[in-house]
Task: structure prediction
Amino acid sequence: MKARVVVQVADRRLELAEHDVPCVGANEGLLRVEGCGLCGSDVEQFRGHFTAKGIVRYPLIPGHEPVGTLVEVGANAARAWGVKAGDRVAVEPHLTCGFCRACLDGTYHLCKSVRAEGLPSYGFLPLDFGRGLSGGYADYLHLHPRTILHRIPAAMPIELATQYQALAAGVRWAVQVPRTALGDAVLILGCGQRGLGAVVACREAGAGTIIVTGLARDRHKLALARALGAHHTVLVDQEDTVARVQAITGGHGADVAIDVVPAATQPVIDAVEAVRPGGTIVIAGVKGGRNTVALDTDRVLFKELTVHGVYSQGRAAYEQALRLLTENRYGLERLHTHRFGLDQAAQAIMTLGGEIEGREAICVALVP
Ligand SMILES: [Zn+2]
Ligand SMILES: [Zn+2]
Result:
């Protein structure tokens, strides 16, 4: 059996190829990919940022947000994963070791192997890893013994299913980590797929006031933020974010602020000023080492702020995200803006990356 795969051979160069579908061992599985979500990491990888840092090497099959149907599951894997052939699943990206202290403590997204060996994660592995087929931009994905799966309902549309990672990020970063509670005022800095996922998660948690920031050119995303339940939106290039938050919260400040803005550092500084004394800040926007935040740590100290860095999602967040997608009480299909075939993978990435004039993307899926 053959699988069509998209291979990244160099920076900004993808090629469609056919690879043999490997055999499935007792601890392994084979997934027929129905769709693969894209996020900012796909854009960064396409542009070569990860090879420049030595994190990945070409050639590789991109795609770390795959969902699909299991066509074959080894006997041991079926027991370990609690699944059978025919089940529909979402795949967690990281292949964690299961033995290091982080794994044993239940914080497996911080697994030593994930941090030490580059990125043992679907979509970032070289072609010679394992038995091959290690990326979601393909007809089939070969499932390594260390894979973590989540079952999804047979009826869930692929436009919803491929949002599982974006929504799980919102759940963990905006609710689980800062312990956002009923009635809280939450400031979400950034309105991409993670920011909008945070809006949904905060609304589900019962936040009393949800404020979302963006640029004037993000008006379509901010309109969607309001439609999803945000109470206020702020145009950071036209308004004073801190002053708006203080006005909205009656001078108290926000209980929680979440930064999901890539590269820009001003959101972190705004977060420190916009949260109340005793408030919580979650830093999730990757600045890429190009920018350092000029943070007045005395402000953090005197206000007794709690600052959390967050990276990745994790089981508890995936389960809640998949529940929200299954129930779909928030019209989450509105986050899905584009779908492309495997032969249009570069188009898909450039669409999400804002490189194509006139295409306003939020969640983009590759559908073989
Ligand atoms: Zn991603
Ligand atoms: Zn580990």
